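Usage

Read records sequentially. Each one opens with the input sequence:
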Amino acid sequence: LLSGDFRPTEPRTMENRFKKVLKTCGIREVHFHVLRHTFASQCIESGMDIKALSEILGHSSVKITYDTYVHTDLDRAFSAIQTLE
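and closes with the structure output:
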């Protein structure tokens, strides 16, 4: 992320800005890192290739990406099972 003058933004600054936006919007406080989890899950749900996502996230293996960031909900699990029938 850039600060507007092409210098990287201090991570704590981004965290503080994120908390301020959440508070302004009346959204419960969550860690900034939750955005990474949400991004990964949404990419998978949208059909993105897990290998491509793993590379975007900078992981050394697809297993790390899948085990850490992809959270399959129960409906998707049942749907996947039904495709086998």
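Summary fields computed downstream for this record:
- The longest helix spans residues 11-25.
- The radius of gyration is 17 Å.
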